[in-house]
Task: structure prediction
Amino acid sequence: MKIAVCLKQVPDTEAEIKWDIPKGALSRDGMDSITNPFDEFALEEALLTKENYDGEIVAISMGPEGAKDVLRNALALTVDQVALCTDDAFAGSDTYSTASVLAAAIKKVGDVDVVFTGKQSTDGNTGVVGAELAAILGFSPLTQVSKVRSIDAAGKKIVVERAVEGGTEVVEAKLPAVVSVIKGINEPRLPNLMGIRKASKIDIPQWSAGDLGVDAGKVGVAGASTKVVEIAVPPPRGAGEILKGELEEIANTITDKLIDLKVIK
Amino acid sequence: MANDVWVYIEHKDGAIAPMSFELLGIGKQLADGFGSSVSAFVIGDKVDDLAKEAGAYGAAKVYAVEGDVFKTFRGEAYAKAAAFLLDKYKPEIALFRATVMGTDVAAAAAAQLGFGLCTDTIGLAVDGGKAKMTRAAFGGNYTVSVVNEKAAPQIATVRPKAFAMPEKDASKSAEVVKESFALADADLSTQVVEFIKSATSVNLVEADIIVSGGRGLGNEGGFEIVKQLADLLGGAVGASRAAVDSEWIPYEHQVGQTGKTVKPKIYIACGISGAIQHLAGMRTSDCIVAINKDPDAPIFKAATFGIVGDYKEVVPKMIEKFKSKLGR
Result:
């Protein structure tokens, strides 16, 4: 079975984010970067799939050169092959362009049975690249996956559980499929020292727009359907009121105030 | 003249819920800005009741695709039908709810058509004859506004509860345009074989009242008190990442950057310190009540009402007062 996993480098979720507002871009100076936390679950699911069903894993990332770090981390966790889609033309890509580039990379890898992605990134937060990727590739779209029940590569079939509104949906789908996983589907493992050492010596292949056969004019800023017109800091919430006094009095006041909102039915 | 503004009528297997029509309110405002009309579009096995209701909530026209294959919700099938309608009529902008169901349809349809997609939109306006969309970025610390620069239609998913529900007027009705779109099971690659209803039936994203617990609860048992208050108020139970990571409560309850984004009318945070990652998921709630022992906890900066104290004393006292005042 051929397994692909898409990994994105994002600013550390613990870091303070700074936008260069006039430039409309993220100020990355001195900011730590990590693998998107949701993608760690995707990577672990790829590793588990390989262990349970045999196969090989290709990890793909799209981003600036620094995004090699997330692929090196994947190599340390023993994925078989990696590729970084990187090109100045990719900068400023919207979700559709991102999905198009990733789709081109997956086609270049060839014969992929299942693609794992995280359900969203913690920086862009769009949560749609997995679904768009499936639509572009014509693969079965499986979003919000909370469990992979079984994969039958020979029979070209996968059964998953999806966390949807009000419950869990069990879905049977044809392979190839794009599986976007949610937090909690597994416990991502950490690389060991030997893995890290080995990974540090591996050369990471880079694929440009030309290598991928992607029209540079249709991705990145040039291909984006929307233009950023304004970046703003949302107004802070008004200073709240700290209720003071004895517990009895506080409980009386807060329950009155909440009942007055006429929301409690 | 600008084309119509379209609103996707989300429904679970034909069930009518007011939330399905939520976006017709902002849809109408946008249409007024464009000088066009707001229309609804709906996909299902029988859509007459949904179409009638959409008319009452303000849709001028309802475009529909009906078929047996749409009896049970399936993103893949609904997206193909939605893409067919959007491609045929090319609305100025099509709005979907930013729920799992809405996003599945919107994302696949957008990708199939190559249309731009703005997700989890919290602001919508017409600016210079173009749709301007605002969304939160980086955990709600910034908002980013974008306009559609292309001639192609725009698709936006809109955060539930970001805009007011439209008024319902049963005397109003919409013209229903049914389009035939042939789709068979054989054309599809996914099949829903079972639906397991969640034991915790309240949906966080739709809830008007959420009572949440964090690390400050101290242990799993703390959620019993949180749940008592939530149940009493008819609300849902939320949690911070710390509480979920401690395995006190399942992930589906997590609110914040790596959990759900919610916008209830009342959000009661118990023992939650208020890390920016948590605030990202709930800071747009209408009224926030924070209960925390630490007077310096950042949650108090976001709170409408703050109570410095031990939740183990404060919450039971609130339950007692609510019971007597509400007669429960």
User: Anything to note?
Assistant: The CA atoms of residues 117 and 180 of chain A lie 5 Å apart. Chain A has a mean pLDDT of 91. Chain A has eight helices and 15 strands. The helical segments of chain A are 37-53, 68-76, 95-109, 129-137, 193-200, 209-212, 220-223, 247-260.
